[in-house]
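Example 3.2
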Amino acid sequence: MDEARLKRALETLLAEPQEHPEPGSGTLLVAYRLRDRPAIPTSVPCHILRTTYDAEHPAHLLLDRRPGPDDIMVYAFLGKQRLDRVLMALAPSSSNFFQVLVDNLGQEQQGTTEIAEAGEVDPAMLQDIFSLMVVAYAERREEWELTIGGLASAAIALASPAIRRHPGRRSPDDLVALLLTEIAAHPESVTLQGLAERFSYNPTYLSGLLHEQCGRTFSQLVREQRMLRAHQLLTDTGLSVAKVAAMVGYEGTSNFHRLFRERFGETPAQARAGRSARRAAMMEAQVHDDRLREARDDQG
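Structure, written as tokens:
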């Protein structure tokens, strides 16, 4: 890590107004000198990573002395739900890290998960990863949030031996919540057999549990998530209908057209046309408001 670049990034963070994370927020980094330590909130569901930097030589670890008042503490607040889904998609189902995430997601998390110690993990490696997060956040180049998400995933994976997990089987409600999270995260590729293998349950049991608790079959739940994602892609992007169909898990467009019309009462092309009409109406309304404002200014 370039120490001069890291120092500039830390100074940038120190100069920024200190904000508190909000529910549903993405990524927030807060830096302060230890003599000015603020109150750090703990009531918002998120992952928290933290480390301390030497004020004069931030690339050096504070291993041989206690932190001083001028040294810099950095907290990284990472949106819990989104990051957990990314981590679960990356973690091998046989790993301890995956089991940590499964137990974590299967519970209602009202507080935070703070990872400050990494057990026997090399602290220099974690510090390098964290420093890259600091630089990415301070410089905010293109796709900086994706960069930080990837680095945070690496840091949490390295620190996972230090995270305690609660043993035991999940309750039916917790298991259903976990299954629905997986379906919503990967509707284009999720399968009942894959979920059964990943969570070590019988597929027939999972199918019956979902139908009992949700009133719909696994296939119906997957189809609903596919249609919702397709509608969003059609109305928010310029992707072709064939591309959208492929992205949500359909090899051809004929079946996709039929299911989309059954769900929304209109064809994919009509949904896209509706978006264009709404945008045109909004632009026309904006022009009208601008003209009224100009007229009032002229009269004034």
